[in-house]
Amino acid sequence: MHEIVECSGTATANAVKARNLFEQAFTSGSKYFISKEYKKKRSTNHKREQHKANAIKKQILDIHVS
């Protein structure tokens, strides 16, 4: 087991979920379905992170403008 260093809670949780999905894929043989699910989760997480980053940028800009 590898040690995870300096990760946020959500990143660690997502990594565990992804690993569990891949383990299911290799035991059940449904690689297509699992990879599809993983890609969907990854893109959703990416959009959420992007949204947070944009909100923070907006706050910073608002502070500088005012």
Secondary-structure element order, N to C: HH
Which regions have little confidence, pLDDT < 50, spanning 5+ residues? Answer: none
Radius of gyration: 17 Å
Give the strand tally: 0
Distance between the termini: 50 Å
Strand percentage, roughly? under 5%
What coarse outline follows from CA principal-axis ratios? elongated
Mean pLDDT: 69
Sheet having the most strands: none
Briefly note the structural class of the backbone.
mainly alpha
Which helices and strands occur, and which strands form pairs?
Elements: H1 9-28, H2 31-65
Structure overview:
This protein has 66 residues and is mainly alpha-helical. The chain has a domain at 35-66. It is 83% helix and 0% strand. The chain contains two helices and no strands. It has helices spanning 9-28, 31-65. The protein is elongated, with a radius of gyration of 17 Å. The N and C termini lie far apart (50 Å). 0% of the residues are buried. The mean pLDDT is 69.
Entry summary:
By secondary structure, the chain is an all-alpha fold. It is built from two helices and no strands.
